[in-house]
Amino acid sequence: MTVAVERPDRTGTAAPRPPARTARRPGRPLVVAAILLVWLLLFAVLRGRHTLQLAAADLTGLHRWFNDVNDSIGADRDSNPVFLYFFNEIRLVIDSLVTSVQELISQPGAGRPLPQIGWLGVVGIAGYVSWAVGNWRVALLAVAGFTFLGLQGLWQESMDTLALTLSAVFVALLFAIPLGVWAGLSDRVHRITTPFLDFMQTMPTFVYLAPLTLFFLIGPASATLATLVYAAPPAIRITAHAIRSVPATTVEAAESLGATRRQTLTKVLLPMSARTVVMGVNQTIMAALAMVTVAALIDAPGLGKTVVQALQSLDVGTAFNAGLAIVVMAIVLDRVTTAAGVRQETARRARGRTAAWRRPLLGAGAAVTAVLVYLSHTYVWAAQFPGEGGVGSAVSRGADSVTTWAQDHLSGLTNAFRDTLTTGLLNPFQTLLTDSPWWLVGAALIALGAVLGGWRAGVTTTVCVGLLVGTGLWSDSMTTLASTVVATVLVMVLGVGFGVWMGRNALVDRLLRPTLDAAQVMPPFVYLVPFLALFGATRFTAIVAAVVYAAPVAVKIVADGVRNVPPATVEAAVSAGCTTWQTVTKVQLPMARSALTLATNQGLIYVLSMVVVGGLVGAGALGYDVVAGFSQGQLYGKGLAAGLAIVLLGVMFDRITQAAARRTSA
Hints:
By secondary structure, the protein is mainly α.
């Protein structure tokens, strides 16, 4: 055994030996570059082998098994006790709820040729409720918005959409608010629910449709259940966050004064978190509206069905008119619930005191609203919206004219843009994914997941890759993956560009943020219509729509990350002589790495959701498989497998980017 001897220095004391040099590990960017280089080299040698291609009409054993399960369930639906006394009962209750709301505001019922409350009563109720929970400006917006829906000639379709949305939100909040309060009070419940909520919120809207139709059939019940399942997580998460955000000192003060647990909850926690809870209700309503429109694929009535039919027939004018109605409804619902949150906070600070004149006015408004409801119930002119929808016809003709003009005068520019991006970026990347051997792509994805997110992300990617192969839709999954990654790259280019601009300039932030907030409340279908007019029914249409749909959230996250860089650090860089470019690239962006990673995470999830919806306008791949599964019975199993593949892609994206964000911020 060799013993290290320390040499004495000139003072006679032993001088420590210099530490042994250790080899530096290569950085993650270098490892990622090496993985990509090896992938490209092997692709050049093995191109076209083991690609697991599957024709559009071909089925695998798994797809046939799904079809057999669907047929078996259909045959036993009226004899199996599980369906007789559980699933069928749930479907009956939900159908009854939706039918009751529809008969109230949208559909004839109870021996009447018209709904119980006609258009005048609905407009009056909308205006009164908006004023009572918000303010007079929001009330005017609600009255104008609902009236515009009638002028478009889409009153019944709009009320069907509103009926499904309200039904789903009502049932969702019955479960979500209590569960959110419970999760806010209990650490154990919070730990248990968080992974499930994360999982549910990463799933694109399409994913919820196919499994529910298996048990509840196609129709309003499945649409409502899919909507409430998709819309409940925001309310649960935000309610739990609101309860847990109440200062501990306030709770301790209430308990020291002898308040019971129930009194602490009802007198302290809930009142102090009311505004945040209302924000959760807002998010639930917006998610429900988005899902109700997508649920038109499983025969949900309303505006979504009009949009889907118009998109499938490439009728841009009709699609634009119905999409505009969805936008109007989304804006009204968003503004009303946002104003309700502001009023709730104002009332809490005023300790429940209200202006002396408000109560009499509310009473008078209630009386006027009751009169309007009576008139709409009694007289045809107040029940059936007058006119033939002239505004809607004009909007449709205008959209068709603009489309024709754009195709005649801008086709050279739009086609050049489409072809350049498709030929230069999308096609090469898609070819790399679809023409590489499946095991090579899988190995590359697993390696990238482990490098970027750690070994847990690598294990998750391994499981997802294996299950993707098992779905029998590997090639379609890689096509969807290619479109998603390309769109996400474009989203991050926009996100970094505009995010840095907003983060460094308060005026720009104030000007752009309202537009970004408004863009985030729009259902996905709305984004397809204008780009269908510009680019036609191609996969590029879905990609551009996905970029526009996902960019607002990425821009806002990057802007917040740049703004949170300590001003002292920025001032030090400027005083050291750094230019603006150097300050951004050497200081602000590196210190906002966690925000950039989070923006990538959210961009990927939003893009995946929109790319799949793009199956309606020629995007193909998994989105087309899901849509075909709903419309062609023999392809139901393939559509269900495509939904599973979308889930796996979403989980893989989410776990890798979330793990990378945690490693970046550590």
